[in-house]
Write a structure and sequence with these properties.
With about 400 residues, this protein is an alpha/beta fold. Helix content is about 45%, strand content about 15%. A seven-stranded mixed β-sheet has the order 1-2-9-6-5-3-4. The longest helix is centred in the middle third of the chain and has 21 residues, at about 240-260.
Length: about 400
């Protein structure tokens, strides 16, 4: 569809512009060498999508295509479509759910569908879903006709606080996750807190571990809020979620703004991820959600930080308590050798050195290259013991 002359957004439906209170939306700017866009966090962004689209230069005149998954569409599709004039309903493309479908074959199929539906270089793709739809949608947008614009409408907490921001897009190979991809920033991100209503509680908690990570590595006030307001957050109180999401996004935006391509500072976002990724790989990506594996990985990284007496005991205890307060973390079994092997293959490693993120205190992170196998094994044994209980 094309929102001709922006009429829908600006004039003909003015009653909703009047009713709509912009103050309920928080805006975060992402600015880096190759990106300049905003992330809006708030309620009712879905139904007021046309209004927000109208504010992005040139976007309202584009032909729009939506990429989503059947599950998400059945929950929220009808509501989303109310944002579009009845005669200008956008074509909807579907990606089946699950990591197994985050593959190049799906990108080819979706590209063919876009072409058949008449998408051209000026078309605008909306990735409406969790991190999988976002990563595939972003990659599809990066390569379709050598690159078209896209907008992220993340529907999981993980996607709202993390994956929709920062421009990393991609798909999996059978030999490893996210091994094919591209940096392609969205034109905008709209994180509607309301869509989280239908998110299973376990998925919500898994996403919150990435926010806890954001607090640990850079934002003490976010950490304190997560520590103190757990009940409101887990009850999906919109104001509490808005605060958590916007603070997490702000942290990531700052880091990506300084180091877009992960040559330095952006590495700190991998806190908990070296061992977390190893756990995901060693358990076949089936047993734990990403955020849950990262929570175990953060506990392991804390153990190493503590052993080095880098992290004060008081901070270590607060962080551990907070991680457990958002649990329970699912139990799992794995062999230390498998974890060590998987950690060695982590693609974040650089030419034989193992880069590892440690925490010297709440709100702080450092990247080191001298974590030994002995330290890794000790941390892995510690969490494996806890995970087997
Ligand atoms: N690009 C990045 O920077 C980045 C960062 C972190 C993670 N990721 C990627 O993100 C992916 C994981 O994302 P995810 O955790 O969002 O998983 P997901 O996309 O699989 O979504 C999780 C589940 O929630 C369902 N769902 C989504 N929104 C819903 C809603 N509002 N109500 C009810 N159910 C809903 C989905 O159908 C799915 O079953 C991984 O592939 C990971 O590699 C990318
Ligand atoms: Zn992560």
């Amino acid at each position: 569809m094309s929102l001709d002359d922006n009429a829908w957004a600006k004039g003909s439906h003015s009653e909703f512009t009047v009713r709509y209170d912009e103050k309920i939306v928080r805006t975060i700017h992402v600015k880096s060498a190759s990106a300049d866009y905003t992330v809006q966090v708030g309620c009712d962004l879905l139904v007021h999508f046309a209004y927000h689209l109208g504010k992005i230069e040139g976007a309202a005149k584009r032909r729009i295509f939506i990429l989503t998954s059947p599950e998400i569409w059945s929950l929220w599709g009808r509501q989303f479509l109310t944002a579009f004039p009845p005669v200008q309903q956008p074509p909807v493309l579907f990606l089946p759910p699950g990591e197994a479908n985050k593959r190049l074959t799906q990108v080819e199929r979706l590209s063919t569908e876009l072409a058949a539906a008449g998408a051209d270089r000026s078309s605008l793709l909306i990735a409406f879903g969790g991190g999988i739809v976002g990563d595939v949608g972003g990659f599809l947008a990066a390569i379709y006709m050598r690159g078209i614009d896209y907008i992220q409408m993340p529907t999981t907490l993980l996607a709202q606080v993390d994956s929709s921001v920062g421009g990393k897009t991609g798909v999996n190979l059978t030999v490893g996750k996210n091994l094919i991809g591209s940096f392609h920033h969205p034109r905008a991100v709209f994180a509607d807190v309301g869509v989280l209503e239908t998110l299973p509680a376990r998925e919500l908690r898994a996403g919150l571990f990435e926010s806890i990570k954001a607090g640990i590595i850079r934002d003490t006030s976010l950490f304190r809020f997560l520590e103190r307001d757990r009940e409101a957050i887990l009850a999906c109180d919109p104001a509490a979620l808005k605060r958590v999401i916007s603070a997490s996004v702000r942290m990531k935006a700052e880091v990506v703004g300084i180091d877009e391509r992960e040559s330095g500072l952006r590495m700190i976002l991998n806190f908990g991820h070296t061992i977390g990724h190893a756990i995901e790989a060693a358990t076949g990506y089936k047993k734990l959600l990403h955020g849950e594996a990262i929570a175990w990985g953060m506990l392991a990284a804390l153990h190493i930080s503590r052993m080095r007496t880098l992290l004060p005991e008081k901070d270590a205890a607060r962080i551990e308590n907070t991680i457990h307060a958002y649990g329970p973390l699912p139990r799992f079994r794995a062999r230390v050798t498998d974890l060590l092997d998987a950690a060695g293959h982590d693609k974040k490693n650089k030419a034989g050195t193992r880069r590892f993120v440690l925490c010297p205190g709440i709100g702080n992170a450092v990247v080191v290259e001298n974590v030994t196998d002995t330290e890794m094994i000790s941390a892995m044994e510690k969490i494996l013991n806890e995970a087997a209980r």
